[in-house]
Design goal:
The protein is mostly helical. It has a single domain (about 1-395), classed as Sodium/glucose cotransporter (Up-down Bundle). About 75% of the residues lie in helices and about 0% in strands. It contains 20 helices and no strands. The protein has helices at about 5-30, 35-40, 45-75, 80, 85-105, 110-120, 120-155, 165-215, 220-230, 240-255, 260-265, 275-290, 290-305, 320-325, 330-365, 375-395, 400-420, 430-450, 460-475, 485-490. The longest helix has about 50 residues, at about 165-215. The radius of gyration is 22 Å and the shape is globular.
Length: about 500
């Protein structure tokens, strides 16, 4: 079996790629309008929606970037992965019913559409669409880079391909992603989520058992090895420190309710009452799949420290290296296939909201009607993918850190305007506009100037607190707005 390790892994991935083509072609037959392309026609059942929610949250960010963070920073990223469960509860508690009710009072195809209905302001719609486009570029780059890094590791481990560059694997990844996304839209994404979510729950448990069995004394021995090398890494705050970790708690807890690729799925399920069933299933799937994040990263760090594995060229290789060298080849192949499924479906989710922002929300906010919207949507999808790929090659950050930046953009722009604003009738359009503008200006200034906040506080967390303060402050000192009667009825429910 070991002699055929790489061919087995490649076979699993190849089978998956053909499955993606099949799903894309099937979804293309089902996609008759832009509403189908972006919102799946509000036809999703409990299990499909639940698996789509947790799969989209993890994806390449969690499966590739997460282990890389644990490998490089120790337990600091524990404050990302664990507290994201809090984000699920905030999202469903504050938006699960509300967004689905809003979806019933208009023919919406995007989150900015609903925001326009809530605030009655095209400026607010346009600003939110701009924030979504910027966040999508970074997050989509994360998915493309994760897929490319893993594919590069797999192909370079094979004797058939020689030395394959990251640029080459990025071209392959983008080509597959584009076919999958352009043909099927969001339908292809959510139904792939259903399959790969089930695979990842089972595979994560098996991989975690493999992690534990890598050392004679399991987790205890791994912890001891890391502790003796760097005491801070295995402590509760990791190498980032207390304030930095707590800022991640805020960003990935409360900020989890501001991720448009997740919360828009709350508008797609068949019945409003489904939300109470979707939440526990999503949390269960996320918790089991999250074992990969901590387990693989910790194991690879211990293996390198102990001299059992050569140092990694990049922390982002932690997941692919562990699976290729220490997991059963068939299990590794299944996990890689599931990982690619997660990346593809999540990338499609980002492309869906980004494309809607470019070809629908921005034009609508300035009074322009797009002709042939379905064709325009597919062309826009290609353009966004290429732009994200260029950004991925240009950036020198770790996969998870690019993802964290985009998470911060979404959190700071969406949490005040949507999560709070959809539950507070007094919130005003001007407050929403200033919250979005301030979040983009401040976060981009910090990133472009490469400023470091004191005590390793995350820039996204700082910006989230600032935008919330501005939103609440302006609203309290503003005259209470007059709401559309349909909006007021929904907010009274």
């Amino acid at each position: 079996m070991e002699a055929f390790r790489n061919p087995i892994i490649l076979a699993c991935i190849t089978i998956y790629m053909f499955l993606c083509i099949g799903v894309g072609l099937w979804a293309m037959r089902k996609t008759k309008s832009t509403h189908d392309f972006f919102m799946a026609g509000k036809t999703l059942g409990v299990w499909v929606t639940a698996f789509a929610v947790f799969s989209t949250t993890l994806s390449g960010f969690g499966f590739v970037g997460g282990p890389g963070l644990v490998y490089s920073m120790g337990m600091s990223s524990f404050w990302m992965v664990v507290v994201a469960v809090l984000g699920f509860n905030v999202s469903f508690g504050m938006l699960g019913k509300r967004l689905r009710l809003f979806a019933d009072i208009g023919h919406f195809i995007s989150l900015p559409d609903v925001v326009y209905k809530r605030y009655g302001s095209n400026t607010t719609r346009g600003l939110l669409a701009l924030a979504i486009i910027i966040g999508v570029i970074g997050y989509l780059a994360t998915q493309i880079l994760a897929m490319s890094v893993v594919l590069k590791d797999i192909l370079n481990a094979s004797e058939y391909f020689g030395v394959v560059s990251l640029t080459t694997t990025m071209i392959i990844s983008c080509s597959i992603l584009l076919f999958y996304s352009v043909t099927g839209g969001i339908l292809a994404s959510v139904y792939t989520d259903m399959v790969q979510g089930g695979i990842m729950i089972v595979a994560a448990l098996l991989v975690f058992i493999t992690v534990v069995m890598t050392f004679d004394n399991g987790l205890l021995e791994m912890n001891q090895i890391v502790y003796e090398d760097d005491r801070a890494a295995i402590g509760p705050w990791g190498t980032l420190g207390m304030f930095g970790s707590l800022s991640w708690l805020l960003l990935f807890g409360l900020g989890g309710a501001g991720q448009p690729h997740v919360i828009t799925k709350l508008m797609m399920n068949k019945k409003i009452s489904d939300a109470k069933h979707i939440l526990p299933i999503s949390i269960m799937g996320y918790v089991f799949s999250g074992l990969l994040w901590v387990g693989i990263g910790l194991a690879m760090r211990a293996l390198v420290i102990n001299g059992m594995h050569p140092p990694l060229d990049s922390p982002d290789q932690a997941a692919s290296q562990f699976l290729q060298h220490y997991a059963h080849p068939l299990l590794a192949g299944i996990v890689f296939a599931g990982l690619f499924a997660a990346i593809m479906s999540t990338a499609e989710a980002f492309l869906s909201i980004g494309t809607a922002a470019v070809m629908h929300d921005i034009p609508e906010s300035i009074g322009i009607k797009v002709k042939r919207p379905l064709t325009t949507a597919r062309v826009t999808t290609v353009m966004l993918t290429l732009l994200a790929a260029v950004f991925a090659l240009w950036s020198d950050d770790l996969i998870a850190m690019i993802g964290a930046m985009s998470w911060g953009i979404f959190a700071a722009a969406v949490v005040p305007v949507v999560t709070l604003g959809f539950n507070w009738k007094r919130a005003t359009p001007f407050a929403a506009n200033m919250a979005i503008i301030s979040s983009l200006v401040v976060l981009f200034t910090i990133k472009m100037m490469k400023w470091t906040l004191p005590y390793a506080i995350d820039a996204g967390a700082f910006t989230l607190v600032l935008s919330l303060t501005i939103f609440v402050g302006i609203t309290l000192f503003s005259k209470e707005p007059k709401l559309d009667p349909a909006v007021e009825r929904v907010m009274d429910m």
